[in-house]
Amino acid sequence: MAAPSSSSLEYAFHQQQGGSTLAALPKSWHFTSSLPADPLFPSPADSHKTPRDEIRPRQVRGALFTWVRPETQKDPELLAVSPAAMRDLGLALSEAETEDFKQMAVGNRIYGWDLESLSGPGYPWAQCYGGFQFGDWAGQLGDGRAISLFESTNPATGVRYEVQLKGAGMTPYSRFADGKAVLRSSIREFVVSEYLNAIGIPTTRALALSLLPHSRVRRETMEPGAIVVRFAQSWLRFGNFDLLRARGDRALIRQLATYVAEDVFGGWDKLRGRLDDAEKSSQSPNSQPKVRRSVPKDAIEGPEGAEENRFARLYREIVRRNALTVAKWQAYGFMNGVLNTDNTSILGLSIDFGPFAFMDNFDPAYTPNHDDHFLRYSYRNQPTIIWWNLVRLAEALGELLGAAGACDDPSFVANGLKDEAAAAPLIARAERLIDQAGEEYKAVFLAEYKRLMTARLGLLTFRDSDFDSLFSTLLDTLEALSLDFNLFFRRLSGLKLSAIATDADREAAAAQFFYSDDATHNDSAGRQRLASWLDAWRSRVVADWGTLETWGESASGGSGAVSPSREEERIAAMKAVNPNFVPRGWILDEIIRRVEKEGERDVLKRVMHLGLHPFEDSWAGREFENGEVYEGDREEEVRWTSDVPRMGRAMQCSCSS
Ligand code: AMP
Ligand code: MG
């Protein structure tokens, strides 16, 4: 384990100044010191002595990564940083103005490595992984243009992140491509990573965005090159396991699974076992899902005396995390667009942003990926696809899962199963565990989806009848009337119950939810359909908020009204979960054009500000957390939070990024 590079005193000093310098930030290289390196470059020195352009694409076996330094970049321009990311890493905001930061952000600084003595605790690296792309095994993929620099632990929070550059040059994993990233997709990744984090969806993060003025990158046209500094608690994907499984590398699968449990999840003891009955009955129906214990007692085998060994607990943790994340995507209408197993995170993070999108007019069959002809990665398929990916992961871990208590048996560890006869019960057990994990996936997904939809609709409790009478009916109505998914929730948040008290009121109120240029759906039948949903919603709001009257004002007992103070509270609660700003494709396209073609820079700061504070009613001229007045641009923010222009709805992107 590498020692932090700064003394705690030095760090404490920087903390008082509002964060650390880049140089003083504690850095480590746990990943590379725990897992095997590419045998062609066993040490950083072997890689460093090799000319950069001789580290070429090839098959790398028996390894999780290759030591490889970023390409050197001339005259980089730091376009933007995320203040939230600076804070979460433990960096002082002022650090972004230093030369050191600017050079780090494009890979012109190597950390953990002394250039004189050619030694040190670490060096940059690229990961080796494979993946199933669009359902087919694609072989070795790997970090083809991403290079990790170091891990750093924020001592104030204790959270360790791996800091990585995307677009930093070729690696052994670049295959036929160039190792570069274009400005267009870098802007998209930079904005969406920080936005997802701001609305509470697990995601990899983005620290900084730089333009490479001398880099022209060939895609469909020639485009400017860029680098995003991104970070995550782990960049491991299902694809890391897939590749080891395809190559039959049993020992490395065990080693990697152990690394994930001990290092990424913080220890085997942090991984929950199956809930026992006492725990189950103490849970409130609106909190965690119940987990069924469907294993009969006589199925419990092995020296550990348990059907479920530690690898099964690890798998279930990965299942749960991914179930939570995909539930959040569904509740917020986010689509990744390329949910291949190499883009599915072991931590359940949203990761690798290509043709992602947020839903505009609600359409469950929408896919933001222009090349996704079979709608594999469409909105409605995401939960199924993440489970499909989880089953591939289970197959990689299958032998470890199925071995139960015999997983540490020395002969099993060394050679696997002795014969076919021994395989049958192991396979049966693994299948049972996967089935149970599938049930758990559904339960966790549903509980989280219900929790979020309940909150988005401003309700305080979930009733079983809500699923059909409110959630499903709403989605059907949004689809039939071509209503905007996210604008709907925001506009609903601000709606006063007094404005929807009668049929006539409701029909009038319904008009505001249609696109203003949509005369087709916004007719009397359309408005009445929405009005009848508003009526059902209104009753549920009254039931939840009216009967809970505690303010000494007239208690309404669910019969009609909600007191003004309770109504204000309900509106505030809804606005706190229903973002006003959503980085849609058309907004990102506008920003890309303005930065790329018109030389604008401040627009990036403004979109980042809205993205980091997405729940506000307005931004320009208001004070935010640092006590300064945010100047902003009122006209622009109103435009960005209004109807999506007709030509900008349900846009699609190609994968070329
Ligand atoms: P993605 O679809 O962006 O997740 O990428 C799939 C695989 O292709 C990953 O292994 C990437 O590292 C690799 N890749 C994508 N674009 C490039 C590029 N321009 N240069 C090198 N590798 C790339
Ligand atoms: Mg990827």
From TrEMBL:
GO terms for cellular component: mitochondrion. GO terms for molecular function: AMPylase activity; ATP binding; metal ion binding. Keywords: ATP-binding, Magnesium, Metal-binding, Nucleotide-binding, Nucleotidyltransferase, Transferase. InterPro entries: SelO (IPR003846). Belongs to the SELO family. Its cofactor is Mg(2+). It comes from the Eukaryota. Residues 276-303 are annotated as: Disordered. It comes from Podospora didyma. This is Selenoprotein O.
